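Tokens for chain A. Residues wanted.
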């Protein structure tokens, strides 16, 4: 499975490649919940660590509210992540650990892009061959 299937498939399908607010909320919520559970933190403990209410954490993880820049920074710190990692679609693949760098993300994305493009070209070419044979 590729690191950021969601984004590549939106691009390869010629769909709008700009993430909308709901997609961003879903990604952030997923990453926070994944990192929190990976660290063995409850919503209550995470809320205590960043000085917000448990309801705030619950609302973020359920995509009912967005976060301020200050809360994002505190969340990243408490979850031992870089700020960009909260908004990067690699947590679900288990590939983002403490110390995961932006450089490593770019390397992974390049590898995945090569695989996706190759698969896309193969599929299009096979479709073309099948169409040509049916004529």
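Reply:
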């Amino acid at each position: 499975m590729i690191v950021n299937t969601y984004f590549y498939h939106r691009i390869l399908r010629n769909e709008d490649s700009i993430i909308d607010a709901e997609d961003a909320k879903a990604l952030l919520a997923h990453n926070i919940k994944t990192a929190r559970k990976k660290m063995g933190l409850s919503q209550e403990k995470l809320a205590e660590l960043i000085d917000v209410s448990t309801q705030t954490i619950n609302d973020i993880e359920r995509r009912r509210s967005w976060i301020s820049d200050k809360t994002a920074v505190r969340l990243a710190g408490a979850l031992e992540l870089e700020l960009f990692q909260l908004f990067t679609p690699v947590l679900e693949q288990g590939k983002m650990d403490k110390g995961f760098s932006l450089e490593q993300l770019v390397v992974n994305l390049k590898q995945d892009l090569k695989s996706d493009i190759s698969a896309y070209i193969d599929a299009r070419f096979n479709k073309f061959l099948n169409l040509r044979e049916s004529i």
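The helical segments are 5-12, 21-38, 43-50, 54-61, 69-78, 102-134. The chain has one domain: 5-134.
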